[in-house]
């Protein structure tokens, strides 16, 4: 099943239940597009996998992976700032495929600091972005400059901005009247599953087909 916004919402809830308040013991990067945070919470030791490559997702894992002899620079930066830090919060940005992990720790001088690991799970545009307490980007798994995108850049030193909003309705906020308005405007001219996926945020084609089947048989 596609890791859409609904799946992300479920994982965010699970992570909040199991790992909130846990401390980071290790940061690993076994693959170029994959980070594993080993943390210890009241539930014991857990490994949180974040994949921004093929099959982007965030989930707990029991698998152990072999790490490269020399850790990539992105991994080394995360180790510097996150080892010993506490997972203070995790939230989904609206009903988008974006999750923000907030960490509380100490800086080099021993003062309290706050860092953010922003997980964008958007197919081939997936990314991991590390930012400071002001949401200024410290590093990104994939940097995006003007030659790559004229709409949105992701570069160290820039303030983090969410991806451009889609012209779709948040299904968690849609009222019955809004649902009827959208259906009258376009739904009668489209197959039900197509109307669902094109009208509402974060619903993959596979999930839209399943909703249509359960609703109509």
Give the topology, please.
Layout: H1 5-19, E1 23-31, E2 34-41, E3 44-51, E4 57-60, H2 73-82, E5 86-92, E6 98-106, E7 112-120, E8 127-131, E9 137-140, H3 176-185, H4 192-199, H5 205-216
Antiparallel strand pairs: 1-2, 2-3, 3-4, 5-6, 6-7, 7-8, 8-9
Structure in words:
- 25% of the residues lie in helices and 29% in strands.
- The chain has 217 residues and is α+β, with helices and mostly antiparallel strands.
- The strands form 2 sheets. It has a 5-stranded antiparallel sheet, with helices on one face.
- Helix 4 packs across helix 5.
Beta-strand share of residues: 25-35%
**Overall 3D form:** globular
Overall structural class, as computed from helix and strand content, comes to alpha+beta
Radius of gyration: 19 Å
Main sheet attributes: strand count, strand direction, barrel closure: 5 strands, antiparallel
Work out the helix count. Answer: 5
Distance between the termini: 20 Å
The count of β-strands is: 9
Proportion of residues in helical segments: 25-40%
Average pLDDT confidence is 91
**Order of strands side by side in the largest beta sheet?**
5-6-7-8-9
Order of helices and strands: HEEEEHEEEEEHHH
List segments where confidence is low: pLDDT < 50 over at least 5 consecutive residues.
none
